[in-house]
Amino acid sequence: xxxxxxxxxxxxxxxxxxxxxxxxxxxxxxxxxxxxxxxxxxxxxxxxxxxxxxxxxxxxxxxxxxxxxxxxxxxxxxxxxxxxxxxxxxxxxxxxxxxxxxxxxxxxxxxxxxxxxxxxxxxxxx
Length: 126
Known about the structure:
Layout: H1 4-42, H2 47-65, H3 71-90, H4 95-125
């Protein structure tokens, strides 16, 4: 036996779940495209850097945007990746290239990680 208050709550939760699935569908299309465009900007000038930057961005975007895993874990993963990529691509650490690469990747990761919550709230008010 379901009370009227429980019925209203279940309806609201079902609407929220449907909205989250809709945001997931949109983000599953937007994230790879964004990862590719950002890879073109951020990757160092070799094929392995390009491929691995794309994979790293796509996985990180998916983790913080769809799975909603902790953002700071993926910031640390990006930091470590950028350090390794910088040293392997240039033979030595180059501060300027590291700052550009990590800065751009960090900003977009933050947009997906923090923005997801705002997308969900925005659809609930619609």
